[in-house]
Specification:
Membrane topology: Single-pass membrane protein
Mean pLDDT: 81
Number of strands: 2
Strand content: under 5%
InterPro entries: SIM_Modulators (IPR053081), SMIM5/18/22 (IPR031671)
Number of helices: 2
Transmembrane segments: 38-64
Structural class: mainly alpha
Oligomer: single chain
Radius of gyration: 28 Å
Distance between the termini: 69 Å
Keywords: Membrane, Transmembrane, Transmembrane helix
Organism: Monodon monoceros (Narwhal)
Low-confidence stretches: none
Strand order of the largest sheet: 1-2
Shape: elongated
C-alpha cells in the first residue's frame, strides 16, 4: 500500500513539474487544437455557471413555487381510471 501512495506522489510531482515548466516557458499549448479545446472547455464552464446563476436568481427572486398538481376527479373510493372507460 505504501508503494502505491509513493507512485501516486511521484506521478503528481512529475505532472506538477511539467505544468510549472510550461508556465515558465510561456508555452501552455503546443498546438492550435490544444488552444481550441481549452477555449471550448472555458465556454462550457461559462454556460454551466450562467445556468446555475439563472436558477439561483429564479429561486431567490421569484420564490420556488410548488409544482401544479393535475386536477383529477376524486370519488369516495379513489380516482377514476379513465383508461377503462369504453
Amino acid at each position: 500500500m505504501a508503494s502505491l501512495t509513493e507512485d501516486v506522489e511521484q506521478e503528481l510531482s512529475a505532472t506538477a513539474q511539467q505544468v510549472l515548466g510550461k508556465l515558465w516557458s510561456h508555452q501552455l499549448f503546443q498546438s492550435e487544437w490544444d488552444t481550441s479545446a481549452f477555449i471550448i472547455f472555458l465556454i462550457f464552464l461559462g454556460v454551466v455557471a450562467l445556468l446555475l446563476l439563472a436558477v439561483c436568481i429564479h429561486c431567490c427572486c421569484c420564490g420556488c413555487p410548488k409544482p401544479l398538481s393535475r386536477s383529477r376527479k376524486k370519488h369516495a373510493g379513489g380516482f377514476d381510471n379513465l383508461a377503462l372507460e369504453p
